[in-house]
Amino acid sequence: MSSLASAPQAGAALAGSAGNDALFGLAALGKTGLALLLVIGLILLCSWLLRRLSAGQRLAGQPLKVLGSTALGQRERVVIVEVAGTWLVLGVAPGQISKLHELPAPPTESMTDDPGSALAGSFAVRLAQALKHNLRGAAPRQP
């Protein structure tokens, strides 16, 4: 009788271990998927940061600076490049670059020299000017 009584217990033990194995397999698969998503997220974050940090920077001694570009078609672009104080307007197509126009670069002095300009100065200076202008117009009149 002991062999008959132990058979249901052995079957239950086998069924329980198969359930545990399936549970461990799903947990391992979930952990692996989560780790893969984390690695892909880190790669995307690093590439975004690299583009963001190096977009406007120019290395010392680098004679070329791309000022802007505009797409004209699927593969054609117009690019403005600054080289040694000269702006070059270039047409860029697959396998071909053409100079469209050349002009001297404008001076790089800030616009803060002209206080009458609408864009002169920092935000704090412009805000103070706007407040003074508004307070002069809103001052109560004396009888």
TrEMBL record:
Keyword set includes Cell membrane: yes
Chief place where the protein resides: membrane
A Pfam cross-reference name: FliO
Keyword Cell membrane: yes
Protein location: Cell membrane; Bacterial flagellum basal body
UniProt keywords, alphabetically: Bacterial flagellum, Cell membrane, Cell projection, Cilium, Flagellum, Membrane, Transmembrane, Transmembrane helix
TM region(s), chain numbering: 28-50
Stretches assigned to coiled coil: none
UniProt similarity note: Belongs to the FliO/MopB family.
Protein name: Flagellar protein
Gene that this polypeptide is encoded by: fliO
